[in-house]
Amino acid sequence: MKGQEFRKLKAGTARAALVTVGLVGLAFAAAVSLCAQEAPAVNSPAGQVVTAYLDYQDANYSYINEGLTMVLKSSAFKKEPALSRGKVVRGTWQLGGGANNEVAFVWDRGARKLYVDLNRNLDLTDDPAGVYSSATGGPDYCQMFPNVRLPLEAGAASRFMLADLSLYDYGPQPRCTAALHSFWQGKVTLQGKEWQVGLLGISSRQRLSLDGGNLLLRPWGERSKPFNVYNGPLVALPSSQKVFFGNRAYGLKCASQTQGDSGKVVMQFTDQTPKLGELKIAGTYIQRATLEGGPYLVVLDQPEATVKVPVGRYKTANVWVKRGDTEANLDGQFQAVGRITVAEKAPAVLLAGGPLTNSVDVMRRGKYLALNYRLTGVGGGYQLVNQDRSHPPEFTVYQGDKKIASGKFEFG
After folding, report:
1. How far is 112 from 73, CA to CA, in rounded Å?
2. How many angstroms separate the CA atoms of 116 and 124, rounded?
3. Ramachandran assignment for 225, one of left (phi > 0), alpha (psi -120 to 50 degrees), beta (any other)
4. Quick one: which of 135, 18, 55 has its CA closest to 372?
C-alpha cells in the first residue's frame, strides 16, 4: 500500500491476508481534505406549523431489506391454482407486524411460482396481477421474485408496496425478506429552504405514528439520487417526534388523510425553541453528522468546528464524509463514539470525521503475519460507500529496504 492515495482505495474492511515474512517494515499513507460551512443556529418563535403532503412513490432501486413476519399454513386455502407436484409453502405475511394486515400467499417451489392474494379474499385464483415467477436456475429452496406488489393497509392512505421478495426454505422454517422500492415522500419549505421529507419502511402503524421505521430527510435538489438505509449520505434516519435540522428545532407529527379519491400522509413541522448548547467537532471533512437517541434527532449538514444543538444526552453519533466521488461512513463495527452530553454552559465534543488514513492491523501467526486492512479516522474505522471491488487495496512488505512480498487484500 506504499504511497497509495485515499481516492484509489474504494474497498472497505477486507479479510485478513497471510504472507510469509521475517522482520518487516510496512509503509502506507493517505489523506483527504474537505471544506465545510454552516450558519449559526437561530430559533424563531415557537408554535408556527408548516404542513407537508406526502405521496406514495416507487423507485427503481431498493433502499432497505426487511424480514416479513410469516405465519405458515398446513392446509390449502379456499381456492388455489393448479400447483406442481413439488414442495408448496403456504401462509400469510403480517405486513404491519400483526394479524390486522395479513396477506395470503402460496409459494410453489417446483414451478418457481408465487401467488399473492391481492384482494385478501383467500382465493388465490382471482388475482392475475398477483402471479410472479422466479428466474430459472439455482436451487429451488432459494428463489427471488422481483417487482412484487403487496397491499399495505394504512387507512385512507392504503397503497400497493413494491418490493423484491426473496424466499428461503431451509433451516428451521421458511422465511422471506423484502427489498423495498416504495416510500412516502413530499416537499416542505422551512426558513426559505426546500427539503424532501418522507417515511420509509413496511409497518403502516409505525410510519404514521413515527414510533419506528425511518425518516427521509435531504435537500429537495437531491431527491432523484438513490439512497439506502445502511450507508451513504445519512438521508434515511431513525424516526423521531422531535428533529433539529437546518439549525431549527421542530416537533413532528404524521397522519393519513383523504384528498378526493386518493389518500395522502400529512406531516406537520411545529417550531420549537429548546435550550441550546455548544458542540465542538474534533474531525473535519464532514458532509452530514447526526446525533441520535437523545431529546432530538439532530442533523448537521456541513458543520463548522463549533455548532449549537439542543441540550441533552445522546446515545450515538453517525458521520458521512466526502471528497469528490469518494464517500465514507463511520463504521459501527469499529465505532469509538460514545454517549455525548450537551449542556448550556459546558461544551461537548464529537470525536468523528477526517482526515482518513489507510492502515493495516498486523497479527503474527507462527511464521506468518495476518494483515487486515482498515480505513481509520477520528472516532474509529470508516467504511467506504461505493466500493470498487475490482480495485482492492494493495500492500507491500519490506525487510529493511528490500521488497520481499506484495499483493492485494480480499473482500470478506
Report:
1. 19
2. 7
3. beta
4. 18
Q: In terms of residue numbers, what domain contains 116?
A: 64-180
384 pLDDT band (50/70/90 cuts)? confident
Q: What is the DSSP letter of 204?
A: H
Q: Which three cell numbers stand for residue 177?
A: 425478506
Q: Assess whether 129 and 263 both reside in one domain.
A: no
**Count of CA atoms in the C-beta half-sphere (13 A) of 245:** 30
CB neighbours of residue 252 within 10 Å: 19
Asked if 386 and 329 touch (Cβ cutoff 8 Å), the reply is no
Longest dimension (CA), the chain: 78
Considering 273, 298, 330, which residue would you say is the last residue of a domain? Answer: 273
C-alpha cell, 84:
406442481
Could you tell me which residues are beta bridge partners of residue 324? none
Does residue 126 share a domain with residue 175?
Answer: yes
Are 252 and 329 contained in the same domain?
A: no
How far apart CA 124 and CA 129 sit, in angstroms, is: 11
316 and 404 inside one domain: yes
pTM for the predicted model, two decimal places: 0.80
Q: How many CA atoms lie within 13 A of 176 on its CB side?
A: 25
Instruction: From residue 72, give the alpha-carbon distance in Å to each of 33, 107, 175, 218.
Output: 54, 11, 10, 40
Rounded distance between C-alpha atoms, residue 78 and residue 283, angstroms? 62
Please list, in sequence order, all residues whose beta carbon lies within 8 angstroms of the beta carbon of residue 139, skipping any fewer than 6 positions away: none
pLDDT tens digits along 293-351: 999 999 999 999 999 999 999 998 999 998 777 789 987 654 556 789 999 999 999 99
